[in-house]
Amino acid sequence: MNVTEYIRTWAASYKNDIIADIMPFWLKNGLDRKHGGVYTCVNRDGSLMDTTKSVWFQGRFGFIAAYAYNNIEKNQEWLSASKSCIDFIEAHCADTDGHMYFEVTEDGKPLRKRRYVFSECFAAIAMAEYSLATGDKNYAVNALGLFKRIRRFLSTPGFLEPKYLPTVEMRGHSITMILINTAARIRAVISDPELDAQIEESISAIEKYFVHPEFKALLETVGPNGEFIDTCDGRIINPGHCIETSWFILEEAKYRNWDERLVKLALRILDWSWEWGWDKEYGGIINFRDCRNMPSQDYSQDMKFWWPQTETIIAALYAYQATGDEKFLEMHKQISDWTYSHFPDKEYGEWYGYLHRDGSVAQPAKGNIFKGPFHVPRMMIRSYILCTELL
Q1: Among 27, 13, 4, 158, which Cα is nearest to 80's?
Q2: Which H helix or E strand runs over 145?
Q3: How far apart are CA 27 and CA 61, in angstroms?
Q4: pLDDT number for residue 162
């Protein structure tokens, strides 16, 4: 492999796709120029299927639009889109208790709250990135305030309804890992001891509780002290989440001048999760595995969703940057070749989200409450940055 030419080719591809495909698709079909914010429930051709707005996607696209502005090109339309999403969040998306909704109507009337704080996490990184783009420190202050509110919600007994009754106490991987990235994005624009504390707490919890060498796996759900729970839910491996965690940790390792402990932890998680996730028969990263190799309970267990593929692309580049080991460029090529031959829609633009195990399209919509302009453009922007650094 001609490494320089390989990386240069991908850098150009990522930048072109953001500018010519992904951002134009969502600005044309998703941006709500009447009420503000973004729609994500769009069909294959971009036509609107449902005006319900996902609150976490107001934050997600608010972040992406500013992230693209900061790292791809100074496109004022992108910056305006970011502000539109943030303004919509601030005007409509928080209840009187400060906890954000999960879904609202197109004009901001509340529809549903859930027990999670993911809406808050994505709103916070949107504000932080917009602050970085504009130099307006008020948004950074607001992001930090929202982050501290998240921490308060999580530490206040009974504020967030537990997933299960206390018969079996559990702790979950998803909120643990997302707080690493949330704190890191805010820390890029404003300093506070709670940000560093959260990152260290989350990484330590992953290492202490969720990493299970007996299965060579990072588990999604464990007991309060990391106990293995031998149930269908307790045995779940979510390779995409694990691989996403690996690059969050590599990013922090890089921030700490390639901290050896963190690099080792991240690479162990990446190697294990690739082994569990890569479908040796059809290719691509599979949705769920059971750590005892029993049948997985989830109906979508053998599907190929868009986001585990994008997280693996980022993680492979980060791992190569951390080590210089070309095995990770081979991993990048393997996942990229499969992903780019199955997910992009060459006729209408953007990417499909949901494939069957064999790579055929399960449904052609470009977005819904859970899929929209986040994982695909984040992968392209983050990977473009990594490629330019490597060059």
Answers
A1: 27
A2: helix 137-155
A3: 10
A4: 76
